[in-house]
Amino acid sequence: MRKEFLMGNEAIAMGALAAGVNLVAGYPGTPSSEVLETIAKRRSAQVYVEWSVNEKAALELAAGAAYTGARTLVTMKQVGLNVASDPLMCLEYIGVKGGMVVLVADDPGPISSQTEQDTRQFAVYSKLPCFDPASAQEAYEMIQEAFAYSEKYGTPVFFRPTTRVCHGYASVELKDEEQYHVNQPEGFVKDTSKWVIFPRVAFQNHMKIESRNEELSQVFSEYSRNAILPEDAQHQQCRKGIVASGISYTYACEAMEQLGHIRLLKVATPHPFPEQLALQFMEGLDEVLCIEELDPVLEKALLQICGKHHCTVKVLGKLTHHVKNAGENTRDSVKKNIADFMEISMNEVQEREVPPALPVRPPVLCAGCPHRASFYAVKQAMKGKKTIFCGDIGCYTLGNAMPLDMVDTCLCMGAGVNIAQGVGKIEPDTTCFAFVGDSTFFASAITGVVNAVYNQANMTLVVLDNSTTAMTDHQPHPGTGRTMMGEIVSKISIEAVLHGVGVERVETVNPLNLQQAVECVREVAAQPGVKAIIFKSPCIAVTKPQGCMHIDSEKCINCKKCIREIGCPALFVKDGKVTIDKSLCTGCGLCSQLCPVEAITGGEAHA
Amino acid sequence: MHKNIVLCGVGGQGTVLASKLIAAAAMSRDIPVMSAETIGMAQRGGSVFSHLRMGEGVYTPMIGEGEADLILGFEPGETVRMLPYLKKDGYVVVSNRPVMPVTASVSGSNYSGQEMLDYLERNVKHLMVVDTDKACEELGSAKVLNVLMLGAALKTDALGLSKEAVEQVMLERLPEKFHELNRKALKFFST
After folding, report:
1. Where are the beta strands (DSSP E) in B38-85?
2. pTM (predicted TM-score)
3. Taking a C-beta distance cutoff of 8 angstroms, is the pair B73, B85 a contact?
4. CB A366 to CB B37 under 8 A?
């Protein structure tokens, strides 16, 4: 045993390695990405790891490997599960031979996501067992158990941490490598009655799944991570209890350290719900408060149990508005929920003045980000025209902020390409643009382009190719020519893909050359049909800065056009003068190309 | 020992690294640590924070309001934002250098950070304002803000860690050519 200071996601990865995982695949997405990255860094040579092109591909790959008896892990964020849901829903009816853990990181808040969907709810829907860790240490141990359950019951299982567990750090106690489980895959054994899904097979397996889940509810009532924590001596007569899971369980423990301990049920397997344990917990209680994030999954499970067993216990939580029904829980919100429930008044008001208005800091494109130049070029070229700019998921969603204001829609990965077509079909006089990043292009925009070409759309596809997956910390993708196994492979050319699916006009331009970029957009946008512009310039985080721009204060007329037009964080006003923050400026030179008096020089010479 | 520390600033200022160094220093002295940071979209120039908790009997990395022994503020406005977390008698160490939000630059509104520092002066008993711009200039590097702030935190004793412990883990993590600069930066406000 040894200790390491690990992020929750790193602990999960180390746990998977300790469980003898043979293959790991995933698609990046906050807060899940570090799991796969850690596997790649810490794996032995026998472990295969890849960033797949999207979550569906990752899940299918892992299923194939699990058919051979390999232990497999798939990683994604919650919205990635929507992409992977088609194979997953079916896979549950087929089952697996090797242990298969589907790690889906949920994001209460949401902090970096489009939805507050709850994977525990998806577990109920898809009938998969689900494990919900509360801390880095628990996650490390629990994922090893998840592999064992998966293998024993022949089903993929969900492992569902949330952002605060994924990104929380702790000193985690780890196994030594000699203690790792070793899994030797037996190999794929042909059996069409098992591996080929047909209605009859689905019906038979549906029955098996239902009885297995009933059994698992019993088994999980004995599982040590589902537990009743007894009330303290002062609360022996208290007929109230708390039900909690995940990070909210830790918040509840902290709150009760201060407020006193009433009985608590910790739920580590929201599905199948440990029914027997819950009945035992509710014995002698009149009221229980459910503390959880996202959907009222525990609350509904308890209500169902109460209904089934005619318990008169009152179940409180989100459905009764005792706990807020959206956004993440905090230490303080949970403390207040429990204090209210225990009828303890909290009046520790801090005697401080009301603070002055705080600066608002929405996330922005970095100084020197090539996306800023791309958006600005399209904006300049299309000035005064009726347009729609359909955005997508990635750093470039931040192009919506003022002053660029260049993202009119954003829905989900790859959606922009099709939304632009839909708008165009109803409003033929609108010039339709779809912006998509390079990684998103490969993940889910190609089919949209095929659709556009086939169905005779009029639109301009703008691929923002910065040669990386920037938002999630720079993972490689098919266009980068690197794999997670460390191989250098041939890059898949976006241009060639577009030509291949029938896009005849594809222009590749450096967006940092403003004049050339604007001219290119004007020309391409005026042409009918489906055409594409690839703005190619690397992300500032994967390239060396070109130096720094300088403002000649003699020449500068302080018109502030540079600040007003592009909103670069490196440009600001100090003592009434436009100034460049040297620690941020990368010398991209965009500002120098729009300065009316040529007062800004330095950096790259593009103009 | 039991310490709760909030580090806060603007994405890109290096709060995460500072938090990791404190955690490593605590680990090197066998003190259990938990921490939590802002990761993801907010790192692009948004408000960021780290919560850091040292000592036994901690269930969660998150700090509740009124629980922080120390706020290490890399930016005046962000420090005011985190003030509800401060204990009644807690310490605040704050850099006097404001970071202008792009929203303020674009709308032409005024944010100098001075009103934030004034507010802190009036509302925090144990306050240490550090001139990090001046320090960076003297040291000839703009990249040592986090180590400067760590040094200032050591001066208050609110960290509960020795300068030696912090320096040791810092040097272990840096290439040798940066040792001298960072040693000086750590010393700048701590002595």
Report:
1. 47-54, 68-73
2. 0.95
3. no
4. no
